[in-house]
Amino acid sequence: MVKMTKTDQGDLADAIRVGARRGPQCFGAYFDDHGGSCALGAAYDGMYLIPREHGVVIPKHLERLFRCLDEVVKTCPVGCKKRLPLAAMIVHLNDDHQWSREQIADWLANGANGPAS
């Protein structure tokens, strides 16, 4: 299971990178009206290449594609002491610490162990 989770996190990082190239970053929502996405929105966009005129899209069931989102719990790498399931931690890093989607992807690709560079 650990090996699958690390592979899963790498695949999630790749999806975030693909989605991040499709528009600017946003905060507080998966997507905004300007074609932006948060880190989880970028993962969804990276998997499905959502048309730009998508309107309101709420990603559903990303945990089915990336089991690590629900099965892995991480402590905040910034040091604020939060311990959350990976999906919530990604939202926390995006919205509360305003990490770039690329920083979040790097953190995931490195096994989500320490701070991103």
SSE diagram, text form:
Elements (H helix, E strand, L loop, with lengths): L1 H19 L18 H10 L13 H4 L2 H4 L1 E3 L7 E3 H10 L5 H9 L8
Antiparallel strand pairs: 1-2
Helix pairs in contact: 1-2, 1-6
Please give a structural write-up.
With 117 residues, this protein is mainly alpha-helical. The chain has one domain. Helices cover 48% and strands 5% of the residues. It is built from 6 helices and 2 strands; from the N terminus they run H-H-H-H-E-E-H-H. The chain has helices spanning 2-20, 39-48, 62-65, 68-71, 86-95, 101-109; strands at 73-75, 83-85. Strands 1-2 form a two-stranded antiparallel ribbon. A hairpin with a 7-residue loop joins strand 1 and strand 2. Helix 1 packs across helix 2 (39-48) and helix 1 packs antiparallel against helix 6 (101-109). The mean pLDDT is 86.
Average pLDDT over all residues: 86
Helix count, per DSSP?
Answer: 6
Percentage of helical residues?
A: 40-55%
The span between the termini is: 27 Å
- Give the percentage of residues in beta strands: 5-15%
Q: What's the number of domains?
A: 1
Indicate the low-confidence ranges by residue numbers. none
Largest sheet: 2 strands, antiparallel
Strands ordered across the widest β-sheet: 1-2
Q: Structural class of the helices, strands and pairings?
A: mainly alpha
Order of helices and strands: HHHHEEHH
Total count of strands:
2
Rough shape?
Answer: globular
* Rg estimate, integer Å: 13 Å
